[in-house]
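Fig. S4 source data, part A: sequence.
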Amino acid sequence: MEIKTLGKVITACAVAGVLSALLLANVTFYEMLMGQLSQWADTQSLIVWNSSPHY
């Protein structure tokens, strides 16, 4: 009986570890994507600013 319980605990810990790793990877990807989009937006803003006939 105790071996089955230990197996369930180990399985639960393994699942929690995998989910945590996936969440961390997702957050890292999101931060990287937002950084890239921010750089792109800054570049586009400069292009529009420099090509505007009003300034």
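Fig. S4 source data, part B ends here. DSSP finds one helix and no strands in the chain.
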